[in-house]
Design goal:
InterPro entries: FAD/NAD-bd_sf (IPR036188), FAD/NAD-binding_dom (IPR023753), NADH-Q_oxidoreductase (IPR051169). By secondary structure, the chain is α/β, with parallel strands linked by helices. It is built from eight helices and 23 strands. The protein has two domains: about 5-105 and about 230-380, FAD/NAD(P)-binding domain (3-Layer(bba) Sandwich); about 115-225, FAD/NAD(P)-binding domain (3-Layer(bba) Sandwich), CATH 3.50.50.60. Strands 3-2-1-7-19 form a five-stranded parallel β-sheet, with helices on one face. It has a five-stranded parallel β-sheet with strand order 9-16-10-11-12. Helix 1 (about 10-25) packs parallel to helix 7 (about 280-300). The model is unreliable at about 375-380 (pLDDT under 50).
Length: about 375
């Protein structure tokens, strides 16, 4: 009997999981369906580049997975019935035996007059708005995390004729090492970016942002990067989810409440090897995808479930096209004193981004060629739990 595996979402996590499963499971025993609302893979870590007018490589999912055995369904997920094992989409229902939930996250709390860059369509809207701005217009980016820093530096570099500023609640780059913070401030000075520190933006108007203290910061365009939230579909099911709406999973990325469901990437409240929850990022998405895929293969074929070895090495932050910071971190994501900066960091950051996209574009390359047959699931060795 064919075992039906459905993967929801074709971002870094979902696409990697689908490809890895296709490479390691025999097509005579399994049917793998990848469901995604967009027909193309969206290189989300480059949305700030798309927003300032740079064109990104088009990767159609039908081309990426051609010949792999993965069936691509372009559809929008409406709901998941985890008791009956059915995914409801705008293109019809899909039944599953194993579900890999990778719907990811989106910008949250975006005010009416603000724009975001959490996805392709929103980045394109910002691109069109920036194109309409004349010299001297004010652009404000709200949020001092990785997305905010990359967005504001990209805009300032691409449009030096604009008055670009960043509003952060605390201090700029406060989570970074002293070396990285110093380089960050140098880059902001060089790009002419004004930093509003210790500022909480309460609301956004058409021509300004207003802080909690009533101060007005001029802005013809406000870009909101101050929060991300997971898709609400999981919270509407009987799956055990966290307060953030993320699916609670064990070391193998398996739902603690529904053993036929796995969650990966931003959608999962997942532990790393240290036991600490992984942060929402591409750096978490790909490893959790590999962990879940390998656990599924092991359980279906009577193999050994791999131990959770997920940890971090660094946080890479682009500062436009010509500068960057690579902050080295401990496996549990605490900053080390050392950091790579400048051109060397640019090259490393670009290598990492290209490698992540390459892993999606070549889903069945550089993995063991043997496709295992589905066997007795009870023979599995649960070494990870």
């Amino acid at each position: 009997m064919t075992h039906r595996i459905v993967v929801l979402g074709a971002g870094y996590a979902g696409a990697n999981a689908a490809g890895r499963l296709a490479k390691r499971l025999h097509p005579a025993d399994t049917e793998i369906t990848l469901v995604n609302a967009d027909p193309e893979f969206v290189e989300r870590v480059r949305m700030h580049q798309l927003a300032v007018g740079q064109d990104l490589k088009v990767r159609r999912l039908s081309d990426v997975f051609a010949g792999t055995g993965v069936q691509v369904r372009v559809a929008r997920v409406a709901a998941v019935d985890v008791e009956r094992g059915i995914v409801h989409t705008d293109g019809g229902d899909i039944a599953y035996d194993t579900l890999v939930y990778a719907l990811g996250s989106a910008a949250s709390g975006v005010p009416q007059h603000a724009l975001d860059i959490a996805g392709k369509q929103s980045a394109q809207r910002l691109r069109a708005r920036l194109d309409d701005l004349g010299a001297g217009a004010a652009v404000l980016v709200v949020g001092g995390g990785l997305t905010g820093i990359e967005a504001v530096t990209e805009i300032a570099e691409a449009r030096p004729d604009l008055d670009v500023s960043l509003a952060v609640r605390g201090d700029l780059g406060s989570w970074l090492s002293e070396k990285a913070q110093a380089h960050l401030r140098q880059a902001f000075d060089r790009l002419g970016i004004t930093v509003h520190e210790g500022v909480d933006v309460a609301r956004v108007e058409k021509t300004c942002a207003i802080t909690a203290t009533g101060r007005e910061i001029p802005a013809q365009v406000t870009v909101w990067t101050a929060g991300f939230a997971v898709h609400p579909i999981a919270a509407a099911t009987t799956l055990e989810v966290s307060e953030t709406g993320q699916i609670v999973v064990d070391d193998s990325m398996r739902s603690v409440s529904h053993p036929d469901v796995y969650a990966i990437g931003d959608a999962a409240l997942a532990p790393g090897a240290s036991g600490s929850p992984l942060r929402m990022s591409c750096a978490s998405g790909v490893p959790t995808a590999h962990q879940a895929a390998d656990a599924i293969v092991a359980r279906l074929t009577g193999g050994q479930v791999p131990k959770n070895k997920i940890g971090y090495n660094g946080q890479c932050i682009s500062l436009g096209r010509n500068d960057a910071v690579m902050q080295w971190v401990t496996p549990d994501d605490r900053p080390k004193p050392s950091a790579l900066t400048g051109k060397a960091a640019v090259r490393l950051k670009e290598f990492i981004c290209k490698a992540a996209a390459w892993s999606v574009s070549h889903p069945t390359v550089m993995l063991p060629s043997r496709r295992r047959r589905v066997g007795v699931a009870s023979a599995v060795h649960e070494t990870a739990l």
